[in-house]
């Protein structure tokens, strides 16, 4: 019996789980996939938005600004890469320059600091590769970038280190309430019992809400396609570059990632059935917009393309509320952009205001909120590396040449919370396989380490869970 059951292992569910462990509560997280951060939090732009885009007096505006202010300290505690690189919303016409003034005014109403409208000359000084057609920009200096899966994994891992339980491969099929006790049943028949349920199920949050009678929470899907460039082109831009937003959203962006790749995208496509397939037309649209935003885009350094699916509600704002029909259920639904930025602030609000309104919260004095970075070894000095290798020789063996990731880091990823059980899970934690060759050389070695650490045959190691076998059997 748990005090609180959290459904959904994305960034909102993960940060709420961590916030709950600051109190004397028994808590667990249910995730339908084989690992955490497998939904919209995985394929995320990683932008820490300043907060000028959301309409004033919305939950998006409130939690965006609060989350932005929390992010530097939050990521430092968890050992997650965060860069305060600033955002530039670029205008290509006099009409768009006027829109920038409106955005600045909106941001000021939302509480955003450090914004200014810059002219063409100032913009070129900041970004030499900006298009010659660009006329100016809104410079939001509090904007940043963070690793989205790094943040999610670290928050959940830190929660587990502080006593939270994680159940993967647990797709919720039904929620029943008997008196003050909820029984959450998986589609396979497993059950977990708890006193409170927090719905953070992303694309499935509307479905989960309907299980407790809240049929008015409608959640839809929107696909976004991306192109990723090699770190060799990491200096192409230094800020996050946005087009001036329209009614359809913020559009294509050009940005560094926290690991100094260049990310291009996303598109925005409404979907009846969620799909993460990339399309020729979608990627062509990204390229077209990138060439409008910049000059000499190094598309020859493309190493991969991918797509993510974003959940949004028909209310066009975050839904963060207790169930109107079933006491003890809290919904966090339709958390689209700027959900990643907002997550730490949403978590604090949900626990302190919503959970705290239902149960008495007592501080957990043994809570330890600090976590060591998942991938850090290559950034150390030679002296520091040698000291670690002296104590653990596995750190002296490079497995991923592109990203300079060692065997010791991969072993740690398999052993620590939440444990990596397949090749892609290791990739998200360590970056092994994220370089130019995309795992072409290191994947077999990563799989060997996983097999050894988990005590399973090599042929049972998968790329990303059931149905993704790396080999069909032993040949010799």
Summarize the structure.
This protein has 476 residues and is of the alpha+beta class. It has helices at residues 11-20, 59-78, 94-110, 120-126, 148-161, 205-211, 280-293, 339-355, 382-391, 407-415, 423-430, 443-454, and strands at 2-7, 27-30, 47-48, 82-83, 87-91, 115-119, 136-140, 144-146, 165-167, 172-178, 181-186, 191-199, 219-229, 240-243, 253-256, 262-265, 269-271, 302-313, 319-322, 329-333, 398-400, 405-406. Among the domains are: 83-144 and 221-309, D-Amino Acid Oxidase, Chain A, domain 2; 377-460, Arc Repressor Mutant, subunit A (Orthogonal Bundle), CATH 1.10.10.
What would you note in describing this structure?
- By secondary structure, the protein is an alpha+beta fold.
- Among the domains are: 83-144 and 221-309, D-Amino Acid Oxidase, subunit A, domain 2 (D-Amino Acid Oxidase, Chain A, domain 2, 2-Layer Sandwich), CATH 3.30.9; 377-460, Arc Repressor Mutant, subunit A (Orthogonal Bundle).
- Helix content is 30%, strand content 23%.
- The chain contains 12 helices and 22 strands.
- The protein has helices at 11-20, 59-78, 94-110, 120-126, 148-161, 205-211, 280-293, 339-355, 382-391, 407-415, 423-430, 443-454; strands spanning 2-7, 27-30, 47-48, 82-83, 87-91, 115-119, 136-140, 144-146, 165-167, 172-178, 181-186, 191-199, 219-229, 240-243, 253-256, 262-265, 269-271, 302-313, 319-322, 329-333, 398-400, 405-406.
- Strands 5, 6, 7, 13, 14, 15, 16, 17 and 18 form a 9-stranded mixed beta sheet that branches. Strands 1, 2, 9, 10, 11, 12, 19 and 20 form an 8-stranded mixed beta sheet that branches.
- Helix 1 (11-20) runs parallel beside helix 5, helix 1 (11-20) runs parallel beside helix 8 (339-355) and helix 10 (407-415) packs across helix 12.
- The longest helix is centred in the N-terminal third of the chain and has 20 residues, at 59-78.
- The protein is globular, with a radius of gyration of 22 Å.
- The relative contact order is 0.16.
């Amino acid at each position: 019996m748990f005090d609180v059951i959290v459904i959904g292992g994305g960034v909102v569910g993960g940060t709420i789980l961590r916030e709950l462990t600051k109190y004397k509560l028994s808590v667990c997280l249910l995730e339908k996939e084989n690992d955490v951060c497998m939904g919209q939090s995985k394929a995320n732009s990683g932008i820490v938005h300043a907060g000028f885009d959301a309409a004033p007096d919305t939950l998006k505006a409130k939690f965006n600004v609060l989350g932005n202010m929390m992010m530097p300290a939050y990521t430092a505690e968890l050992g997650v890469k965060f860069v305060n690189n600033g955002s530039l919303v670029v205008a290509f016409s006099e009409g768009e320059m006027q829109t920038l003034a409106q955005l600045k005014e909106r941001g000021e109403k939302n509480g955003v600091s450090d914004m200014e409208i810059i002219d063409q000359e100032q913009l070129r000084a900041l970004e030499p590769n900006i298009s010659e057609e660009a006329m100016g920009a809104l410079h939001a200096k509090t904007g940043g970038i963070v690793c989205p899966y790094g943040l999610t994994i670290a928050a959940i891992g830190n929660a587990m280190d502080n006593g939270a339980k994680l159940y993967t491969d647990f797709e919720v099929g039904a929620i029943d309430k008997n008196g003050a006790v909820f029984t959450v049943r998986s589609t396979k028949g497993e059950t977990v019992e708890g006193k409170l349920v927090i719905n953070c199920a992303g694309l499935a949050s509307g479905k989960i809400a309907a299980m407790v009678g809240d049929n008015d929470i409608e959640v839809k899907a929107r696909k976004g396609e991306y192109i990723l460039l090699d770190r060799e082109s990491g200096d192409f831009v230094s800020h996050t570059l946005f087009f001036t937003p329209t009614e359809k959203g913020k559009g294509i962006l050009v940005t560094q990632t926290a690991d100094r790749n260049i990310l291009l995208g996303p598109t925005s496509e409404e979907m009846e059935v969620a799909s993460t397939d990339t399309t020729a037309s979608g990627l062509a649209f990204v390229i077209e917009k990138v060439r409008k935003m910049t000059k000499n885009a190094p598309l020859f350094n493309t190493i991969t393309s991918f797509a993510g699916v974003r959940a949004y509600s028909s209310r066009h704002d975050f839904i963060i509320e207790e169930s109107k029909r079933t006491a003890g259920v809290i919904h966090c639904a339709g958390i689209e952009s700027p959900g990643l930025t907002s997550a730490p602030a949403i978590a604090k609000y949900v626990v302190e205001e919503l959970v705290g309104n239902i149960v008495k919260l007592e501080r957990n004095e043994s809570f330890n909120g600090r976590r060591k970075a998942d991938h850090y070894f290559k950034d150390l000095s030679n002296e520091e590396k040698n000291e670690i290798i002296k104590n653990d020789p596995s750190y002296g063996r490079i497995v991923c040449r592109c990203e300079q990731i060692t065997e010791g880091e991969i072993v740690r990823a398999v052993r620590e919370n939440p444990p990596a059980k397949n090749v892609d899970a290791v990739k998200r934690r360590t970056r092994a396989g994220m370089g130019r060759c995309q795992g072409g050389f290191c994947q077999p070695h990563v799989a060997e380490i996983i097999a050894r650490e988990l005590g399973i045959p090599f042929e049972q190691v998968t790329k990303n869970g059931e149905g993704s076998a790396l080999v069909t059997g032993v040949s010799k």
